[in-house]
Amino acid sequence: MTEMNYYTTPSESARNILIANDRGGYTIPTSGLYPYQWNWDSAVAALGFAEFDIDRAWIELETLFSGQWDDGMVPHILFHKPDPGYFPGPDVWGGTGPIASSGVTQPPLAATMARRVWDKDRAAGEARLRTLFPAMLAWHRWFMAWRLDEHGAVCTTHPWEAGRDNAPDWDGAMAGIDASDVGEYQRRDTSHVNSADRPTKYDYDRYIKLVQIGREVGWDQQKLLDLNPFRVADPTMSFTTLRAARDLLVISEELGIEAEGLSADVALLEDGALSLWNESLGAFDARDAHTGEWAESVSNASYLCWYAGIQSPQMLDRVKIVLTTVPHPIPSYDPNMPKFDERRYWRGPTWAFMNMLAGFGLEEMGHGVEAEALRLKTARLIAGHGFAEYYDPITGSPAGGNSFTWTAAVWLHWAGRN
Description:
Helix content is 46%, strand content 4%. The chain has helices at residues 10-20, 39-50, 54-65, 90-93, 110-119, 126-146, 159-162, 171-175, 201-216, 221-227, 235-255, 262-274, 313-325, 352-364, 368-385, 405-415, and strands spanning 37-38, 77-78, 155-156, 232-233, 277-278, 283-284, 287-288, 390-391, 398-399. The strands form four sheets. Strands 3-4-7 form a three-stranded antiparallel sheet. Strands 1-2 form a two-stranded antiparallel ribbon. It has a two-stranded antiparallel ribbon with strand order 5-6. Strand 5 and strand 6 (283-284) form a beta hairpin.
């Protein structure tokens, strides 16, 4: 599918991308590079569909939860159809759910996005939300059972689980992983996009090693608490899980559904999220749950505090500076920090959907000027450089995959609104 051209408006192009990436009940992020259903991608895609096909928006979420495991976990990838062009596929993961899948999850955006879809479909959508609610609640309870550190912050157990694959936040924990016995494998991602835009082989060796550790124990979470060398309390996971808990609580109250313990969970998760404040850094930061060491990383996830319902004057000062000094904010890693790389995935590039989440929070918590500035800058970035996976924050040039589902959804639901 082509990007925007002379004959179509951005909104027409965005709708066309969602339709082209539709595989019958779920969307792929983009053709070739990502041929399956990704968890948080689908949650964002539902927002895009809700702007022109509300039934299809619900179907996207329902299909995502069709792959939920018995323990409540919703995998980060559902392998609905075989595709030899992707690695690692279901044969490598050895997932145990009802649909071939990966063995880790992703940040829980679905409850928040389901609530926003419901806002556009209050009457007809109630029955569908009621049906989804027990599955969303079970996923939340899985997080509470298996992903909290001693402070109540939410941990990621694989860089892919946090969704920010090669973020500098993980460098310390990754350095402690021995991947010397990982064996030979053939990556597929670099055959689709520029290798300079992607994680390095050093990263990938460790990604695969963590998959092998999980598979060896059949993804038994109790065993992985002891065996997994990678466990990092993360702003992405902590802020999105807290936000999901808040939304689940509101949904349960509005629908009159009993959901015992959610209020207590919100309080615990808020304390956990606040524990990720790194005073010396002056920002929310990732923390190695095994060693207690800070990552010393200001990422775009640091700016999701408002999305989680947490005010921070210091982060507000930061976002004001970013909005006025970085040509195409918010970069995934602070350009003034030593590991900044403007094109390499989560080590610098700007991601439109992360901007949208930060924008939601800023607007909801009373920072309308900053929210609108971020929205307009994101709109100009997309309108000027197409529906890319992510962008160089300095030049705005597109990077990664193109004709990208969640970037199209961001345009339709947020960035391109009048």
